[in-house]
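#structure-requests
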Amino acid sequence: MNLDIALIVMLLTIGLGSGFLAGLLGVGGGMVLVPCLVFILGKQGVSGDIAIKMAIATAMATILFTSLSSVWAHHRRGAVRWRIVRGLVPGIVGGGLLAGAGAFTFIKGLALGLFFAAFVGYSAWRMFKGAARTASARQDVHGPLGLSAMGGAIGFISGLVGAGGGFLSVPYMTRCNVPMHQAIATSAALGFPIAVANVLGYVVGGWGLPAPAAGSWGYFYLPALVLIVLCSVCTAPLGARAAHALNVAALKKVFALLLASLATYMLYTSLSGG
């Protein structure tokens, strides 16, 4: 397996950026990684249908490592609401396994690409607008059953788009009167169980899949996984530190514009068949 210098530099740069965003916004980095990996895999000669699945699975696998680095930085600041994490995890595991080992295997890659584009586009719009709600629309955090159900939705949808769940969990927690910095920190903690459940599902679903590219195993593109993780675990703590010092609301609007561009690219890729 030969990797040219340009590809190595690209993967390392993507890792630096996705790790920082994971710590800063609690998003796991998957929203950025998936379109980038689809582009890279396409250049490796992988067909659009399987490239999308491999990009989603590989992005989720990076979150296994990035989330640990990010959550430790947040935990040291006492910002993680562990009671909420414990309430959401059972549903997250169930929903993640259902997505990774079930729906992910049977849904066509191009359909997943369209779903990703729609979901990221909507997330970008919500992030740009700030999803403002009045005080009367706010509520308290649900009880055990409600948290488990919410966790199931977060785990399932995250598995279909290769994301750490922050675009669902952060708005939910802020609507439940959890301060923004604590919501971001808690979302970062949720990234690990989301990734574990879905990665296990992808392993089962992709077992015995013929290697579509050099260095791939099942749905995972191992060169990208290794190089991205090497960088993302270094920059995730920096992003977490920045989240407690910077104007996150302003940064989110800039990030929303980036997401809108990535959603447009994924829409074009899916409709053109890769």
